[in-house]
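I have been asked to look over a protein record a colleague put together. The record follows directly below this note.
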Amino acid sequence: MCNWGFRVNRLITINGLVIGARAVGDADCYLDILTAEYGVIEVFAHAVRKLNSKNAGSTQLFSYAEFCLKISKARRTINSTIPKYNFHGLSRDIRALSLAAYFAEVVKHTTPEHLDVRVYNTGENVLNLFLIALYELQKPTAQILQIKAVFEFRLASLLGFMPDLRACEVCAVYETKSQYFLPESGNIYCEDCYVERDLYAKPAFLLDKTMLYTLRFITYSQLKKIFKFSLNQQKELSVISENYLLLHVDRNFKTLDYFKGVPENE
């Protein structure tokens, strides 16, 4: 295992969210932990699957905790943990849980180890976005598709694919009755410029004022606010955000297919 960023033969303390686990033997497992400093790191958890393990609560899927890690040349091993928050509410809704699994798969693919997720100018990071999304998901009144859309669209921005939704790319008009959003470029065009530039062959979404304002809100608002809105067009928003994220990360996800197969009344 590469211990990039860690000096060996010492203990370090780091906060993180467990987003994946693989069983090893009768009681051990490897964990994927999302951290603000190092992206997703793999750590070894000894005997945590035993009923009397002192670290069992902190090493469950979607547990947020402080981890004390022992660093060696071979691997990083959990020495002790202090639980901070467990998202137990996710277990009440299979759609919420399956969506959280999709978020985890996306993050594991897009936030590998040695990606410093603190580099973005806003000071936000993928970990904060994930934690807030899980908090919203476990609410009994959670708007599942809206949370999905917000996570996808904002994550794309954090990964370096922030769209430019400020005005028409050509004439710089801020507001018209409707505008076209081109996911490939992340730009918007008013109807006149869209026609003049003959952009019909490019994939595009026609946005009314409400949808454009919503996408602007998700992209440019403070992270703590971006889930705080109400929208009737949640399915349309979900289609736009999903298309935008998958296009730019250039792959599909099995967990997304599973989520889509879960009935809404489950």
